[in-house]
Design goal:
Blueprint (H helix, E strand, L loop, with lengths): L19 H32 L2 H28 L2 H24 L5 H30 L4 H29 L3 H19 L18 H11 L1 H16 L3 H12 L3 H23 L7 H19 L4 H28 L6 H30 L1 H26 L2 E8 L2 E8 L4 E4 L1
Helix pairs in contact: 1-2, 1-4, 1-5, 1-6, 2-4, 2-9, 2-13, 3-4, 3-6, 4-13, 5-10, 5-12, 7-13, 8-11, 8-12, 8-13, 8-14, 9-10, 10-12, 11-12, 11-14, 13-14
């Protein structure tokens, strides 16, 4: 799907920040995402310390993402019906309260594993509405002109927080304990509430609210099924989410059982992934187009790199491959997110995005305990390799299915002295040259 006719100059990398409302939203998001990453690291390490089990970390992931599996589609319906600005104020206020509760339990020494599980589940309920509302609200902040750029910048902000948060979180855990990470996140959530509540409503590109009616969930699912570009993207996201997007489980095992580097090392591993992801997110702002072939191809590349990380010969090689995993992770997710959002009608976008988030986060709910169990059965090295090889194989199968559905085939030839590989239909018409 063409988005730009020419590659944008580097000065346009942050074009969406010209919008005052988006600048305010982005600044609060940077603070909040840094604090959220600190909280995630602290929660994972807290569960590992309390239980002594990597599988228990996977259960924490499962508890946080299970609500999306159960109620995710309803989050899209709510997003389409109500003010996204108001919804974000409510959800971030709830997230602040949950972080504050976890901070009190941890700092008082009363915290138990089931407390973390329960708070993770309630936080997952908040995410059911918060995630689709946040995704769709970007369009209201910047309008269609800057939407693609804003999506990429949102990913950059998320990963910049992921670069800073784990490193700071690891230091905090070692120095004063993880409870302060939860307290900091509570304050950061309140900062988001203030920023969103004070946006200038007159400058928002408000989308029309969907009227109440029967069959709205089914309507959203039928819409996705009728659009192959969205349908195959969602399928690819589902596979990646189950197998590849469970890095906390793998990195906790590597930090605790393989390299014995403790909480600081765990935070540093997460920071390396985030550093690569930040580079990938910034690179995604330079794309001139977003196509289904890009989504599938990037998924295959991510799978191969993650499989190689499982066979890394040492800590240095493992760290370098984690950076590459981060790059592939964000190139894939920004391509998938952009393609789904920009290919869907604005009045049904909330439901489409909720289905997308359902498979993204719901897949991690399934994959967390699954990959935790695999780690404990066969070890972190083979488990990491499996987490990459399965998505790579799935990408190859999906590519073949798409090619058959569209009657495409590869043609090899020469253009002058240069070899050329082209994707053509059965009539011989060139679709894309590689």
């Amino acid at each position: 799907m063409p988005v730009l006719t020419t590659r944008p100059p580097w000065r346009e990398t942050f074009a969406s920040l010209r919008v005052p409302n988006y600048r305010r939203f982005a600044a609060s998001n940077l603070v909040a995402n840094t604090a959220v990453w600190m909280q995630r690291i602290a929660m994972d390490w807290l569960v590992l310390q309390l239980s002594g089990s990597v599988a228990a970390v996977g259960v924490t992931v499962f508890m946080q993402f299970t609500p999306m599996l159960l109620f995710g589609l309803w989050g899209g319906v709510i997003t389409d019906r109500y003010s996204k600005q108001r919804l974000l104020v409510i959800t971030q206020s709830c997230a602040a309260a949950l972080a504050a509760l976890l901070a009190v339990l941890t700092l008082s020494g009363e915290v138990q594993v089931w407390h973390v599980y329960a708070i993770s589940f309630v936080l997952g309920l908040v995410t059911v509405v918060d995630n689709p509302a946040r995704q769709v609200f970007v369009n209201e902040l910047v309008g269609p002109r800057y939407l693609r750029n804003a999506i990429s910048l949102n990913s950059s902000i998320f990963q910049l927080g992921g670069l800073i948060g784990p490193a700071v979180g690891g230091i905090l855990i070692t120095a004063v304990g993880g409870g302060w990470s939860f307290a900091i996140n509570a304050v950061a959530c309140l900062a988001v509430v203030f920023a969103v509540a004070t946006l200038k409503r007159s400058e928002l590109h408000a989308s029309p609210a969907a009227p109440r009616g029967k069959g709205q969930l089914a309507e959203g699912m039928r819409y996705v099924r009728r659009k192959p570009v969205i349908f195959w993207t969602v399928v690819m996201v589902a596979v990646i989410a189950v197998f590849a997007f469970n890095m906390p489980v793998f990195l906790a095992a590597y930090a605790n059982n393989v390299y014995h580097v403790g909480a600081q090392g765990y935070g540093m591993f997460n920071a390396l992934v985030a550093a690569g992801a930040l580079a990938g997110a910034l690179a995604s702002t330079r794309r001139t187009s977003v196509r289904l072939s890009m989504v599938v191809g990037t998924a295959a590349a991510l799978g191969v790199v993650q499989a190689l990380a499982g066979f890394a010969p040492g800590e240095l090689a493992f760290g370098l491959l984690l950076v590459a995993v981060g790059v592939g992770n964000l190139l894939f997710i920004t391509a998938a997110n952009s393609l789904v959002q920009m290919s869907s009608n604005v009045q049904i976008r909330g439901r489409v995005i909720s289905l997308y988030i359902l498979v993204l986060l719901g897949g991690q709910a399934i994959g967390g305990p699954l990959m935790g169990w695999i780690v404990e059965q066969v070890g972190p090295h083979i488990a990491m390799a499996i987490s990459g090889l399965v998505p790579a194989a799935a990408a190859a199968v999906i590519a073949v299915l798409i090619a058959r559905q569209a009657s495409l085939r590869l043609r090899f030839g020469l253009r002058g002295r240069r070899p050329v590989i082209a994707i053509v239909n059965r009539a011989g018409k060139t679709g894309q040259t590689l």
